[in-house]
Amino acid sequence: MPGQTISEKILSAKSGRHARAGDVVVCRVDGALGTDGSTPMALDYFEAMGGSGVHDPGRVAFALDHYAPAPSRHTAQLHQRMRTFAARHGILVWEVGEGIGHQLMVESGRAMPGGLVVGADSHSVTYGAVNCFATGIGSSDLAAILMCGKIWLKVPPSIRVTLSGALPRGVFAKDIALALAAELGADGAAYQAIEFAGPAAARLPFDDRLVLSNLAVEMGAKNGIFPGLIEADADARYAREVFIALHELVPRVALPHQVDRVVEIGRALGTPVQMVYLGTCTGGRASDFHQARDILKAGGGVARGVQLVVTPASRAVLETLARDGTLADFIALGAVIGAPGCGSCCGTCGAIPGDGVNVISTANRNFQGRMGNSAASIYLASPVTCAAAAVRGAIADPREIAP
Amino acid sequence: MTGRARVFGDDINTDYIITSRRKRESLDPQVLRHYLFEEINPCFAASIAPGDLIVAGRNFGCGSAMEVAVTAVVGAGIRAVVARSFARTYYRNAVNNGLLPVVCDSSGIREGDPLTVLRAPSLAVHNERSGEILAADSLPAIMWAIIDAGGLVPYFQKHGDFVDARETKE
Ligand code: SF4
Q1: 0.90 surpassed by pTM
Q2: How does residue B26 score in pLDDT terms, banded at 50, 70 and 90?
Q3: Is the CATH code 3.30.750.200 the one for domain A21-153?
Q4: Which of A128, A354, B109, B160 has a C-alpha 20 to 30 A away from that of A248?
Q5: ipTM confidence
């Protein structure tokens, strides 16, 4: 019998049977996240299922992140409902302003190596960076977890993405992810797991792993997992192999309105931008803001006519920025600082771009209407490429702006 | 299951199926059904007839995992989506809400074609206009059990847990 991939190993351990790609298994989950986008509906399902007690409340956390702070009476009521349910059943709530649920799952250690950790939000794949099988589920799945602590999962075949070499100056994890998105396409990994491998993957800083795992879902992947406590067998079977030589990469931009419409920076130069968004579960960590700040300062600040919006992924990130002076730098640069959370990412709260506005963002999605206005166009890039665009008022090559 | 094909293209994301804007106002499928696909075809929702089947290309339901993108479709009386491929969260949510996801080569299906979804001897779609029978990917037993129950809610009302280990075999 051939060996197993990381995903097959974890799902074997969690289902108590030898799981192979294609099997459908019922697994006990180690952790589950519900957001204010998905939990209210899960509570409807839970009630309709006849749920009374929560199976294992200690494994569940709710994040108030998509509507933070609540922009309407209706969304404020959704928060109230979640708080009431959580208090009754002993479930942890991450309050408004504490940050994006995915970031908090990682910061709090609720996503653990070798675990099966799910979330009722597609970017739950982010936790693959810590070597857990992490995937997005629906509200009905979350309700089933509240009922019985279990989930059905189809064991995915895996695509092995081997990283080699080192990133050149001005090129970052987001550029690797966009290169991979262009290679695989928006559904190129559908129903499959992405398993990162190779010496460069092992050397990659943790924040960079989070970016790659986070964006795996934009290629349709069920998870994006890094080796760690659980490693693949040497003779594991892969559906496909992809090799990326990091030293050959250049900065990249995803053009509106598809994440796999990726071009090298040279082909997007000069596109005017009126709004720059730094934040989200992809690009809202301290290292992202440090990199962006350095470019902004080196470039002499934000160009006239550009709105710079900064939204840290969590309060811990905001605290770091406050302590190390980055926050003061951004304030001096004229940035609008949003409460930690999803902010402008999906148009549910925070700044919304105007008609005809070009936005460049560190986010993971650029569908038409994504930021709350279908008459705006969204470009996606790394924090430094976004910062370079803020400096020039147009898409620019960050390598031409020191440092 | 027989119905009229309502054809969409590739990469139809959940925001196109139902916008987050509408979702903010209500989660009720009977409200949301009136705004189905409004971003790409504002007249679509009003033209849905009972039994209509959605037909799409690749990667149907990509983007956000929001489940209203399924319940709004179910709420409109649509019982199956036929597509070349689905985003996995949409596929999951479909099964969990009793909406049958049919994966087959949908490229020859035209708007308005009369379709019949055949379950035996294996899952397939019969296009009565062209006479073609399109073989579809089979579903594991546990998915049929959930779909036949009408989704996870009636399934859990009945069982209270995932039951029968045999269901977990492909
Ligand atoms: S930051 Fe954006 S992508 Fe991440 S969870 Fe929030 S809305 Fe989703």
Answers
A1: yes
A2: confident
A3: no
A4: A128
A5: 0.89
